[in-house]
Amino acid sequence: DIQCPQLRKCTIQLAAMDSAAISRVIARVREGSPWVHNVEGCVLQSELSRQRSGQPIPASFPQSVWEAPLVKVRLVKCLNLDQTGVEAFISRLWRLRSLRIEKCKGITTINNCRNSSLHFLSLTGNGFTGDMEFRGFPNLRTAKLGLGRNVTSLSLIDLPNLATLRLIRSKPTGSLRRLIVKNVPRLRTLEVNWFPPMEFISIEAERLTECRSKFFFTADSVSVKCPALTFLELEARFWTNKENDLRAIVAGCPMLEGLDIVRVRGLSQEFLQQVADTPSAENLGWISYLEAPSEEASMSPERMLRNEEATLEIVPTRLKDQQKENNEEAN
To answer: pTM for this one?
Structure first.
């Protein structure tokens, strides 16, 4: 209760998250101090947003920001991020739930960040370089990553609560060579968008049920081990170990019902029939294969248009035999 009859100005800062509470406090100040003409109140900062800033970050932050119970941090088009400082700042925010760093300069990685409360992470358009690893976020639920053309390796490992992963399009001339997603037991949704040429892609997610877009890639080897996945669409300009990889993919995805393969050249009908008849592929109902008409068309950056007449449809032998038996019984 504040009663100061001679008070002319008052600024109040409270560690309260309810805006209605601060309004009630200001009202009581006005009642007890009739001469006050300028009273300001604010809730202790829970969100931090910086846009188009040239100030050094986080060195330019006042001490109150470092001590605030920040829940959301958003840095957009900031020109002077300090690598070590940003990592230390993020790591000490014990209530942080959402972190966005977009189109900023001065930071090349967040590999050393550790935050046990973070739920949402968005990194797009920054100057990240080299090998990127995301291991220190045990409660991360959603990640949106567009790491740019200078990242050489991307690893998301040991993220026990990650449920949604969105990988934004990297330019075809990018440097990304390896993608590893592993030990993400709760990952259910994966959205990928046009990978640059890579040496190796590995996706291991035991609960993954949905890929929102096709894998569009150029790679030496691709590994997909997702026991809950029911449908997979693969579009490859070039795929060195395609036959061995396809056998392993079908074996590693036992719930797979449909497999769609587009563009890559050199898969024979006989080989695809063998894949469809893999003993472990008990749920596989069909394989669809649309081969690029030429090497030039295969390497084109444009998406291939569907051509039903040129598409090869493969049905497992067990289903063919079952259909034949049903027809004989019907006759």
So the answer is: 0.77
* 8 Å CB contact between 28 and 7: no
Q: What are phi and psi of 252, to 5 degrees?
A: -85, -5
For 138-168, how does the pLDDT look when each residue is reduced to its tens digit (9 = 90+)? 999 999 998 777 888 889 999 999 999 998 8
DSSP 217-269: EEEEEEEEE-TT--EEEEEEEEETTHHHHHHHHHHH-TT--EEEEEE-----H
Under the banding of pLDDT at 50, 70 and 90, the label for residue 63 is confident
What b/e string do you get for 184-222 counting C-beta neighbours within 10 Å, with b at 16 or more? beebeebebebbbbbeebebbbeebeebeebbbbbbbbb
Residue 189 to residue 207: CA distance in whole angstroms: 9
Q: How many CB atoms lie within 10 A of CB 10?
A: 17
Q: How many CA within 13 A on the CB side of residue 209? A: 4
